[in-house]
Amino acid sequence: MHSLDPAPHLARVRRTTPLVHNITNHVAMNFMANVLLALGASPAMVHAREEAAEFASLAAALTVNIGTLSPHWLDAMDDAARAANDAGTPWVLDPVAVGATRFRREAGARLLALGPTAIRGNASEILALADQGGGGRGVDSTDSADSAERAAVALARGSGAVVAVTGEVDLVTDGRRLARVAGGHALMPRVTTMGCALSGVVGAFLSGAEDPFAATVAALAAYAAAGEVAAESAAGPGSFAVAFLDALYGLDPARLTIPLADRLELTDAP
Amino acid sequence: MHSLDPAPHLARVRRTTPLVHNITNHVAMNFMANVLLALGASPAMVHAREEAAEFASLAAALTVNIGTLSPHWLDAMDDAARAANDAGTPWVLDPVAVGATRFRREAGARLLALGPTAIRGNASEILALADQGGGGRGVDSTDSADSAERAAVALARGSGAVVAVTGEVDLVTDGRRLARVAGGHALMPRVTTMGCALSGVVGAFLSGAEDPFAATVAALAAYAAAGEVAAESAAGPGSFAVAFLDALYGLDPARLTIPLADRLELTDAP
Amino acid sequence: MHSLDPAPHLARVRRTTPLVHNITNHVAMNFMANVLLALGASPAMVHAREEAAEFASLAAALTVNIGTLSPHWLDAMDDAARAANDAGTPWVLDPVAVGATRFRREAGARLLALGPTAIRGNASEILALADQGGGGRGVDSTDSADSAERAAVALARGSGAVVAVTGEVDLVTDGRRLARVAGGHALMPRVTTMGCALSGVVGAFLSGAEDPFAATVAALAAYAAAGEVAAESAAGPGSFAVAFLDALYGLDPARLTIPLADRLELTDAP
To answer: Hey, are the CB atoms on B243 and C239 less than 8 Å from each other?
Structure first.
């Protein structure tokens, strides 16, 4: 059995039903809540500044997603992240399209400075965020897979966060270790907010975890496994999304162990 | 045929296609609209203070849900509830997580004071709301089922609203009568905003009803019946939600009558 | 092959994956994003005034929908529409329930004055919008089908936009030509935000199109064709929505050509 076996992490989520507080974008809210419920966690979406910090201090994990940001929400995210830090609660930053506008670049830098436990994004987002001060050195490789890896490691070292770069093959690093998780399915990027919802799953797996790196790898492995099950019966992105929720709900922790041994590659970070 | 036969209520909704104005949370909006359309009602989501009261006065029913509240929306809810009261339009309060934060407790008390026609929540929410002044006496039973019943009756008497406590067995009271509605399915709480959407269905059933208590019971019975139909073909929460919309759409009023006689228990309130 | 053959338009969307920037209502966001992804476009929902104009200038098309409007969002829509105009980017106005309240009437008039490339609404919305200054003359016919046609032509001539009135038979006009597109299915209006999402599809088809009138006709034809495929396997509105996304994803451009010849009627505008 692999030392990064995801099965115990999934079992812990099912056993503890962690309350995951999400300040996420409007597109993702419903699907993310359904993903977390199907997984066995307890989602709550609370974003008003009047209660965000108070609620974050009650939660088992917090996730913060800048997808449909506004200044008021950004303040609430800041409050909630600080409350999570004060309570020792893990929190995840999802820097959606962080490089697209000045507003997002500033929001990304501000939230990064608050010290997330984990960061999950696609390669472009991680590259953009690393450029904004998390990394400490520029990212200028012309090889995008390679540059994303170097950016992720630099971002992890600069911020202290576990960094997950999701794509065809996911990459996770804490600046010291580097894991690659293969799997999933080509229909996943054709369903909106699959990535946003995954950040919620990372939050659920971080709750109660001793090793945030292992918990993040487990979350990605569980997600990929559910995607493969869903693809077996899907005729397109509509039926895929439905089958994906069913697959998460029915995911057997034991099922995760064996495939992962084949698909996960663990090395030292470069 | 039972005196609380839900069939005529469902038939009325189908016949009149009531315009249900919802100021609800971001997670629920899409699913709630689909639930109301599948049922045969006409949903509208309108929350800006600049138009909430004006729109509420056009609607056949109003629902107000504090799930993802903000101060501006709370003001709009207040305006809309007053407009509904002025127009004699029934309205439903859904006090999501009302006990969780100070902001919610104050919002719940403020909206309760406006006199909703019906209140729908889970046991914790009804207990919290009853504690905030609707009941007139404390709720301190250690038996949660029992305490929810007493809280619901006290809340109904204190507020004048029909109170529905939904869970494995639903409970409805107007402070004088008390009904229990069994049915539904264990997958229902694994789909997000099933309860929020039910509050919309209660709103649709209240429109044009002579007896709000009977209309609320009918709404819950119809929802439970659709849940049972959906469960027959569901493989998990994803396919359940899809089948549930199909089941609501296909629900035969005649089908509701017989099961209800077995599953509904009507008594005097204690 | 018809001169309004939609196949090349769909092929162009698939080939170019246009980034469609949507400032749309809360109910529509998730479904609209899934519709655009299934079609082959790249959706983004960005509504904060701090970035709406900047983002619109990056996009291949913009859509603006007043379904759940607030004053701040209306300002962002205004900014984004001006940025689209400056960049020569096509944009679509979806005037949801524009006649229902004073706030909506004023918002509709304000956005109309900014010169959308296309306007998509149901008959009531187009009638209301034409009345507010786009048409230049009153609409007072008692024949609603006839009056919608006259309102659409007047609105197109007054505003310079392509106007699409969707319903059982869709009508498209640029003030000179008038097309009718039959097809679709009776379950489509039982799924929430099918119309809103269609406005996004119109945006995707406008991107890179030489003739906005032909592109709008093609968008409506593709949508109707997907609806017909979906209806073959649907048991109600829940399964219809799922099958519709699958159908859009699987839509063969070649499939669109032949049916359209039978179902499209092209004339001079009256």
So the answer is: yes
Topology of domain A7-268 in CATH is: UDP-N-acetylmuramoyl-L-alanine:D-glutamate ligase (3.40.1190)
Mutant choice from A24, A25, A27 vs C, greatest count of C C-beta within 10 A: A27
pLDDT tens, position by position, B108-147: 999 999 999 999 999 999 999 998 654 443 334 444 667 8
C chain contacts of residue B46, beta-carbon cutoff 8 Å: 68, 97, 100-101
Contacts of A151 (CB under 8 A, 6+ apart): A126, A127, A130, A131, A135, A139
d(CA A266, CA B225): 51
The mean pLDDT of A26-35, rounded to a whole number, is 98
Across residues A170-193, what is the average pLDDT?
94
**A20 close to A197: Cβ distance less than 8 angstroms:** no
Which position has the higher pLDDT, C131 or B62? B62
ipTM topping 0.90: yes
CA separation for the pair A194, A248 (Å, rounded): 13
The Cα–Cα gap between C174 and C269 comes to: 8
Q: Which residues, listed in sequence order, are joined to residue B92 by a DSSP beta bridge?
A: B63, B118
Asked whether the beta carbons of residue B38 and residue C238 sit closer than 8 angstroms, the reply is: yes
Tell how far CA C235 is from the center of its chain: 27
CATH architecture of C7-120+188-268: 3-Layer(aba) Sandwich (3.40)
**Per-residue pLDDT tens for C184-207?**
899 999 999 999 999 999 999 999
Helix (H) or strand (E) holding A104: helix A102-112
DSSP A188: G
Bridge partners of residue A181, in order along the sequence:
A170, A264
Q: What is the Cα–Cα distance from C69 to C82, expressed in whole angstroms?
A: 18
Q: What is the pLDDT of residue C262?
A: 62
| pTM, 2 dp | 0.95
Candidates B111, B108, B96; CA nearest to B195 is: B96
